[in-house]
Each structure stands twice: as C-alpha cells, then as structure tokens.
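Listing S7. Sequence submitted for prediction.
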Amino acid sequence: METYRVFISYSHNDLPEVRKIVEVLTQNGLQPMWDENFSFGFGFHEQIQTFITHAHVFMPYITEASSLRGWVHQEIGYAMALNIPVLPVTRNMVPGEMLQRLHAVCFGEDLDDIKERLSWDVFDNLVNGYRETSDALYKCAEQADDRTLMMVEYANNVLKLKTHGLVRQKGGLSSFHIPKKVVTDPVWKERYYPDMRSVFHCRNQRKERIALEKHAKVSGCRLIINTLIMAERSERAQRVRLQTLLEFLDSMPDDKVQIVINRELQPQESLTIVGDWFAAESVSGSVIQGFRQTIFTCHAPSMQSRIELFDQEFEELLQNAGWTAETSRSAAIKEIKETIERLES
C-alpha cells in the first residue's frame, strides 16, 4: 500500500483550517482529495462522486458553517451508501445526524494536536476494518460487450484523475493481445477466425486495449496468461493473438512487465485490477461468447485484499516456472515465439 486517499468534504467558509488539514495529511504520508484537485471543464458534482467513489476514507470537516450546507450532508450519505469508512473531524462541536454514532476527531480553536490525531495509524486502523471483499459494492456487466464498455469507462475515469495504476490481469492472453490497429485491418478477422464479430465489438475491444495500455506504459503490468487459449478452437486465431501479444511485450521495457504462464488457466477465468482503483472479475465465459457476468468494484478499502491474493498466486507461479520477475518478460517472449513457430510449421 503506497498511501490512503482521503476525500475532504467541507464548507469554503472553513478554507484556512482545511488547508492546514490538507498540509498535515500530506506530511503524514496520506493523499488528500478535495475540490482543489478537480479538473477544469468537467462537471463539479460528477468529479465529487468520482473522488468519493475512489477514496479509502471519507473525512467531513464538521463546523457550524458546514453543518448548514446541504451538499455536505449529501456527500456524507453518498460515502456511507458506498460503505466507505467515514472519519468526521470537528471543531468545538459534536457531529449530529448520520454521524452522531461515529467517534469523531475533535479539535479546539487552534488545531494544535492535529498532526498526531490525524496520523497514518489512525487511517490504517480505520481502512483495515473494511478490508473484506464482502464490504464492497458491485456493478455487474452481464454480457461481454457490457464488460468491455465498463472496463474502458473505469480505466479512463482513473486517467481523468491524472493518475495511473499497475495493471494486474489473469485470464486468457490478457487485454494486450487485442490489436490496436483500426478495425478495418485484416488482423481483426484473423483473431476471430472462423467466426465474425461486429465493428461495434471490435471498436470497443480496441478501446479496452488502448485504455489499459496507457496505465501499463506508466505504472507497468503483471500478467498471468495461458498461451494455449484458442488452441482447440482455431490455431489460426491463436497464432495472430499470440503475435499481437508479442508485439506488446516487445514494445515494453523489462521494468514495466512481469508475466507468467499458467497452462491450467481456464477460459472462463478473468480478473483485472488497476492499481487499487478498481477491480473486475468475470464469473462465467467462453472462448466463443467472451466473458460474461463481470462484477466491477471501486471499493478502495478492500482492494488491497484482492491485490495480495493476486500477487501471492503470481509469485508462486513464478517460482514454479523457475523465473524471476525481472527476467519474466524475456522468458515469456521466448516461449511465445516458440509456440508461434510450432503453429506456423
């Protein structure tokens, strides 16, 4: 865990005190999220929802001024509905309404002990109480095309926050076997041979590849793949998909790719985690129909549990293969090339 994102809800009448809180959170290794981070030209309320959705902790600054602001109470309700831990901070008053059952951090007029009372440990203890994946809220993409559209939306939402995340993927050949070429290129017919896919489907697939690659280029990727996917269906389609993946791996430096091959991986298995920003896992699927019933979540407090499970599996597979993370890209490229040569012969 690099840091915890803390969204601050407040009244602008309290801006001087909030600036001090932001400074202290930063000094304590936390990442404040507030309206001064918003991007120009985008909807204000839309950005508030996005920031709260991706926060590890929601922190309302409760004062006489903020208590009179309806939007502060709306934001509190939104955070609690998403099951995001709430840490009220107050000055010379006790929170009411929805927050009255929560133990608040209370300060006097001068906020003299703020750094100690808003320490990393305070937030770490709070977030750890929401680590279970059962605490998260989910959206479900029923069909394969729905999954692709939501993957693009979630990945691009993180990019709109001016940040990137390490791409962890398990399943098939990952999103990086999807071509970046225009959908009229012959490679699209080859990758689905002997079947056909609509232009709509291909265009959205391409968007998924591009969106996730933007994250991988900056923050890297960690992939668990199965090079035998499509082997029983079509060697022709398998070959072009492997070639597309190979082109991606060739374009990436060693320090941006960690990859391992698991030939026991089943066609219906699919998991994507981008940083600790969102996760998407399919519960059914096939080579022909694609992944179905994919559940998405942005619940940051429980994301670390998913990451730890993925990384544990990845490290075990690396050890079994006799690879290291640093040399895995080169080792995978060699094995993929050998597979392509066998298919061509």
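Caption to Listing S7: primary sequence and predicted structure tokens for the chain studied. The mean pLDDT is 88. The two ends are 47 Å apart (CA to CA).
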